[in-house]
Amino acid sequence: MESLSFREPKRITDLAEYAGDYIEFIRATPNNDACGALVDYAANFFTDVPVIDRQLDALILMFVDRIYRYAAAVEIKDAAVTTYFSKVTRYVLDLAAARGARIFYILDNEIRSDRFELAIELMFRAGVFVVTPYTTDGTVMEFADVRRALNVELIAGRHVAYIERDASVNHLRLVVEFAQSTDRAVFLRNQAPTSPEVQHIVSQRATASAS
What is the torsional sign of CA 85, 91, 92, 94? Predict the structure, then answer.
């Protein structure tokens, strides 16, 4: 396979926006250290650039939403994919969390089973803990159990996501109300992965930042 040129990042958002390009470079170029170079770029950015809460919230949304949008469209899942999200994306999200910015990402879309499983895996690798209402025996969880599972991750100080993949269950209103009571940056995606539209849900974090 012909080697590709490495895309030098110009902005921190490039690490999310061009994730697919970086993954292709990792896949096509043996023995590269693209992840190391991108992690260094992120480290330097967070060292040198002052970032306010609102900007951090938008940044972590872009990185987490990119995971879902990538998983929805990807044709190849290999070590290049998992390496990128577990090293580069996770590093950025860990840095944001260290500065007090954590996301509560809510996804309500029809998702093919393999894409659903991949999105969960890649989010987990990136340090986002996913709760779904589906059990291994095919039944659905009561909202009280969903809330308990989410609360465990919130108390642990983690980025969290809640995903409904089909119409077999609908806890969405209750999850949104619960998310609003948290100190997280809350975002709801119920648009197709080709759409950039994501809804911001006002939470205690937003209220505290405005006061």
Answer: positive
* Alpha carbons 57 and 101: distance in angstroms, whole number: 6
pLDDT in tens, 85-94: 999 999 999 9
Contact assessment for residue 176 and residue 95, using Cβ atoms and an 8 Å cutoff = no
Chain centroid to CA 177: how far? 20
Tell me how far apart the alpha carbons of residues 174 and 56 are, in angstroms, rounded to a whole number.
26
**3-9 average pLDDT score:** 85
Q: What is the pLDDT of residue 179?
A: 97
Distance CA 15, CA 147 (A): 32
The pair of structure tokens assigned to 7 is 């895309």
Distances (CA, A) of 161 to 25, 39, 106: 29, 24, 6
Radius of gyration (Cα) for the chain, nearest Å? Answer: 17
Distance between start and end Cα atoms, the chain: 55
pLDDT exceeding 90 applies to what percent of the chain?
Answer: 79
